[in-house]
Structure formats: structure tokens, C-alpha cells
Give the backbone structure.
Amino acid sequence: MNFTFANDRPIYLQLVEQLELYIISGQFSPGDRLPSVRDLAAQAQVNPNTMQKALQELEDKRLIITERTNGKFVTDDAKFITKQRTKLATTKIQKFLTEMQELGLSHADIISHLETLKRKD
């Protein structure tokens, strides 16, 4: 795992976003046991309390669960994870479309640019 942080938002929120992305992108599979809070904090180079706050947020979002004696696990509800992936993708696409429209591009222009980029791959 590679964590990167910007200075414009609280670190714990950025941790939530990055860990959520690891889960919904499949880097953590449904049912996977997460590393300990201390291990995750060390990997991210943050205070364990900050990591714990981020993990609590993920638990509130139902992406992870805590088993008192066994640690924290990714939810085993694959349909829920897929739903969250779709929700995040929709949000990112809507943001992209808004930004392109602010540049003065029509939907046809946007599609044309995307098709051109795809051909270059």
C-alpha cells in the first residue's frame, strides 16, 4: 500500500478515501483481514489514533467490520462493495463532466477527446 497526502484536507479523511479505494478496487478482497491499526499507521506514517479514526469511519460506512478478538476485516458483502464502486465512479464521472463543461466542451467534444485518447493507448 502506498499512501499519499495533500495539505488541503484532514489526513484521516484522506486515509478513509485511500483505504476505501483499496477496498472497492479489489486490492483488499471481501472478507480479507486488514493489517493491525499500528501496522497500517506505520505504513501510512501517521499516528495510530489518526488511523483508528479513519478505520472507524470505514466501519461506519459498513466497508469493514471489527471482530473483537480477531481484528478488522473487509465486509464480505461483495454486492455492497460493487454498489460503492459504482457510486464512487458515478461521482468521479459527474465531476469530470462538470469540469469539461466549464472548459466549454460539449458532450460530443468530451466523447471525441476520450475516443482520441483511447486510440492512442
User: Anything to note?
Assistant: The CA atoms of residues 24 and 83 lie 9 Å apart. The longest helix spans residues 78-102. The chain has two domains: 11-76, 79-120.
